[in-house]
Design a protein that fits this description.
Layout (H helix, E strand, L loop, with lengths): L2 E6 L7 H9 L4 E4 L8 E5 L2 E5 L12 E4 L4 E2 L1 H13 L7 E4 L3 E2 L2 H13 L12 H9 L12 H22 L7 H15 L3 E2 L1 H10 L4 E4 L24 H7 L6 E9 L2 E3 L12 H9 L12 E3 L1 E2 H11 L3 E5 L9 E10 L2 E3 L11 E9 L16 H14 L3 E5 L7 E3 L1
Parallel strand pairs: 1-10, 1-11, 2-5, 2-10, 5-7, 6-8, 7-9, 11-15, 14-16, 15-19
Antiparallel strand pairs: 3-4, 12-13, 16-17, 16-18, 19-20
Helix pairs in contact: 3-4, 3-5, 5-6
Bound molecules: guanosine-5'-diphosphate (GDP), 6-O-phosphoryl inosine monophosphate and magnesium ion.
Length: about 425
């Protein structure tokens, strides 16, 4: 059976939580495949707001399986906090399963992430400070501890000791900071193990079973394609593969099992953290978008940088993901602008290109804009395309033509039902 994948096509925060929540209604299983609690996915159901970091948005439905795949990095403290927060709100977590092979984000990862960012002067990445990069670095260096290690306390203790012997040297000698105590870290983490244990399993086998039973599986992306370690604006990226390719490596479900690849994009563009953003607006229009769009990070509360939609970047992201359809979000935020600009191409040293520039070309790349008229009317909550002001319809049709992909969902507000299905 062909399963659905949802990925962000920009620099994250496209509204993946909202669209996952909407589409998860028809799925039996919702799976996260990459990233960790650097993600912040907002879902608003009947005015109740949920902010999810590690647990898939499907958890808000009582009957869905929710899986955390091998490709994720999991901070046990953050996981427990999120689990308890959901339980306090009356949600049952008996269908939550966590990969034994996912890596653990441990206190030294978070410490090193922040020490490293503080050490950098002009070239900070602007990470979320959650230890994501150092945890993936340990995974690649084959020094990481995994969720399954929580099941064997003695092995956990031994592996932690080795990892700390290494990291404490770095903490002391490179950053001149205070090393962490093995027994303290071990006791704190193992104190959480009992609550996590019942959820730990082998995700590839569980997915294969669910697939055989004919269950509909939905893969919920985190971050965005322009933050992909291999395909994004390196080094201003995250340390995983949030694009659709990450589904197979991050869950064990091969590419042939995937059918619809839904890409989520905002009707304008935002980025939180540092790094190139050619269509960024640093003027009052950018500020206006930030206020109107409530563009403040869910995980860190940082203001998001705002700018015009970048079609070369969107076409590039769609290509990387083999995107089959688009969900365009936050169209309502644009209401009230006199005119809306869209970057349709780039000028690189006098040459025009419809492609997104490579990192080495970005400094000299100038966006080429098309200016479209804006609309006055508030469109919040509109559910039919025909009810949109004709100018807003033209904006959507223009994007659709430029990226040669169908915009099958148009979001007109943060709530589950504020959407146009086309
Ligand atoms: P994610 O990380 O991709 O899930 O996105 P975030 O939750 O970080 O940020 C998206 C924000 O936009 C959240 O506050 C959502 O509630 C909100 N949102 C999503 N879709 C829409 C929309 O169509 N209109 C408006 N106004 N807000 C939206
Ligand atoms: P969701 O799933 C937006 C950004 C950080 C930083 C870079 C590296 O909510 O869309 P990291 O902590 O991952 O090492 O930071 O990646 N970043 C995100 N930006 N949304 C996210 O997730 C992000 N996850 C990471 O701001 O620029
Ligand atoms: Mg987010």
């Amino acid at each position: 059976m062909g399963h659905k994948v949802l990925t962000g096509l920009q620099w994250g925060d496209e509204g993946k939580g909202k669209i996952t929540d909407l589409l998860a209604e028809k799925a039996d299983v919702v799976v996260r495949f990459a990233g960790g609690n650097n993600a912040g996915h907002t879902v608003i159901v009947e005015e109740e707001k949920f902010e999810l970091h590690l647990i898939p948005a499907g958890i808000l439905y009582p009957e869905k399986y929710c899986l955390l795949g091998n490709g994720m990095v999991i901070d046990p403290f953050s996981l427990i906090e999120e689990m308890e927060g959901l339980e306090e709100r009356g949600l049952k977590l008996d269908r939550l399963f966590i990969s034994s092979q996912a890596h653990l984000v441990l206190p030294y990862h978070q410490l090193i992430d922040n020490l490293e960012e503080n050490r950098k002067e002009g070239d900070k990445i602007g990470t979320t400070g959650r230890g994501i990069g150092p945890a993936y670095a340990d995974k690649a260096s084959r020094r990481g501890l995994r969720v399954g290690d929580l099941l064997k306390p003695l092995d956990f203790s031994r592996k932690l000791e080795k990892a700390l012997n290494y990291h404490n040297q770095i903490i002391e000698k490179i950053y001149s900071a205070k090393p962490l105590e093995h027994s303290e870290v071990k006791d704190k983490v193992l104190a959480l193990a009992d609550k996590i244990k019942p959820h730990i399993t082998n995700i590839p086998y569980l997915l294969a079973d669910l697939d055989q039973q004919g269950k509909a599986i939905f893969f919920e992306g985190a971050q965005g394609t322009m933050l992909d370690l291999d395909h994004g604006t390196y080094p201003y990226v995250t340390s995983s593969n949030p694009a659709a390719g990450g589904v197979s490596s991050g869950t064990g479900m091969g590419p042939a099992s995937l059918e619809d690849i839904i890409g989520v994009a905002k009707a304008y563009l935002t980025r939180v953290g540092k790094g190139p953003f050619p269509t960024e607006l640093t003027d009052e229009v950018g500020h206006w978008l930030q206020e109107r769009g409530n563009e403040f990070g869910v995980t860190t509360g940082r203001p998001r940088r705002c700018g015009w939609l970048d079609l070369p970047a969107l076409r590039y992201a769609a290509l990387i993901n083999s995107t089959t359809e688009i969900a365009l979000t936050k169209l309502d935020v644009l209401s009230g602008l006199e005119e809306i600009k869209v970057c349709t191409a780039y000028d690189i040293a006098g040459e025009k290109t419809a492609k997104f520039p490579d990192s080495w070309q970005l400094k000299e790349a100038q966006p080429i804009y098309k200016t479209l008229p804006g609309w006055e009317e508030d469109i919040t909550g509109i559910t039919s395309f025909k009810e949109l002001p004709p100018i807003a319809q033209d904006y959507v049709n223009f994007i659709e033509e430029e990226i040669a992909l169908e915009i099958s969902l148009l979001s007109t507000g943060p709530e589950r039902n504020q959407v146009i299905k086309r």
